[in-house]
Amino acid sequence: MIDIQNIGTGEASETLDDFLQPISQHADIDSFDWVKFSMAPGITSPVRGDAVPPGVIPSLPTNIIPEPCANPPWPMDNQNFGYPLESTLQISRPVTTESILHIINLFLDRLHASMPFFERSYLVDNIYAQRPLYDQSFNALVHAISALTVFQMMQKSHKETRSSVHIEKAEWLLAEAVRLHSHADFGENPVLEHVLTSVFLFGCQFSKGNHHATRFRLREAITLAETMGLDDPQTYENISRDEKNRRLRTFLCLTVIHRVYAIQRDSPINDYLLTSSRLHIVRTTLNQLSTNFGQPDEKVIAGLGYMVDLIDFVDSTFVKCWRNQCWNEATPTHISAKTVSTLLQRYTEPMSTRESPNDAQRADVLVTRHWICHILWDLGSRHGFLQAENAVVQMRPDYALTIAHDSIETCESLDMTSLECHGVGLVSISSYTP
Q: How far apart are CA 162 and CA 141, in angstroms?
């Protein structure tokens, strides 16, 4: 096993596997959530990897079957990914393939169900096929996924398993992802791996609490998705089934992330990309792909569909009203009482989640549903829509008690492992206000 030297220290080197072992031992299965990250204070970025190495190989479109590079522009080592490292990183050799696979397996076990951008085999098969050796965009994606996984492992582990050295190694993975993610004409002809890498970089910055960088990476991902036409059903023609599946998954996941983040962090929302009509047209296409219903990955898609249904009403008008920004306009445009009433009644109807792949995703859907109800009721209250004698019970002031009761009842029906995946998200149900 090739060692990774301690960055900027004089301590003896240890392998990434040595570093990950105590973290994975203290990590709970299914204890992570894609939208509602828990943040560790005091994480800094001591490592920089801005320089682009000479002779990098540009990314291949994912619908082209790649072939191994016969004459790579740098020395190859069968034990690593084969890209050069900048001397400023003070690391002699890159992470081993075995170490990367270890992290990827942690991701698949603990994070993949809540961010199903692709099938599990997509990562493992391409890594075993050594795609990172000749596809820079895929290499960047692998490092971004690894960085997010390690940050989340550290934040969910006991404090004694963390150290400045461990944080620096996580930062190294992040710096490598950023370095590999960039080239001179980046954004001109994006491939899906570019979109996905931006999303995982968004996750890394969110977990670090860097919200300016978080917003930048989310905007970057959305811009790349627009350039690729992920919201246009016509762009899904004449591509392989696997590529179509990954594009549709990515579009739906990005839609959920974008809308939830817009509510949580006052982020601008792109109405054109996320209009309900376009969203449901693309989702219908996705459903037509699900020929192996009952398989784990197809059940994940069903759970993702529930999340899309929960947030499909969020647009710029809703976000402005939620942030109390609608009152500042010369001609205020408010969400209507009828819309709030209709949505609250919609979320009161019984909801079946039998198709969810596991209890963690079922908890994700149900808890988010209560969170949305709280937001809608609070929005109606601040706009003067609630009345004690209203014929619609959801539009009465005391309906807040029903929301609280239902939230507690739902939480009591779920095991602790399922609830832990939400972290601070549970607090948002009762305390998150603009």
A: 25
Distance of CA 83 to CAs 46, 87, 93, 118, 147, Å? 21, 13, 9, 25, 17
Whole-number pLDDT of residue 69: 41
Q: Is the pLDDT of residue 31 over 80?
A: no
For residues 369 and 325, give the distance between their C-alpha atoms in angstroms, rounded to a whole number.
Answer: 24
Single pTM value for the model: 0.74
Closest CA to 144 of 134, 133, 132: 132
Tokens 């209203």 correspond to 390
The Cβ of residue 247 has, within 10 Å, a number of other Cβ atoms equal to 26
Handedness of CA 129, 130, 136, 140 (dihedral sign): positive
Please tell me which residue, 15 or 85, carries the higher pLDDT value.
15
Q: What is the pLDDT of residues 179-235, one digit of tens each?
A: 999 989 999 999 999 999 999 999 999 988 898 999 999 999 999 999 999 888 788
**Domain coordinates in residue numbering, the chain:** 16-314, 337-434
| CB contact set of 42 (below 8 Å; sequence gap of 6+) | none
The pLDDT value recorded for residue 70 is 43
Instruction: Find the helix or strand (DSSP H, E) in which 433 lies.
Output: none
Contacts for 333-342: CB closer than 8 Å, 24+ residues apart: 334/383, 335/379, 335/383, 337/380, 337/383, 337/385, 337/395, 339/313, 340/376, 340/379, 340/380, 340/383, 340/385, 340/395, 341/380, 341/385, 341/392, 341/394, 341/395
Angle between helix axes 120-128 and 136-156 (nearest 10 degrees) is 120
Cα–Cα dist 20/176, whole Å: 18
pLDDT digits (tens, 9 = 90+) for 95-123: 556 777 888 988 888 788 777 899 888 99
Q: Is 14 helix (H, G, I), strand (E, B) or coil?
A: strand
The contacts of residue 386 (CB under 8 Å, 6+ apart) are 377, 380, 395, 396, 397, 399
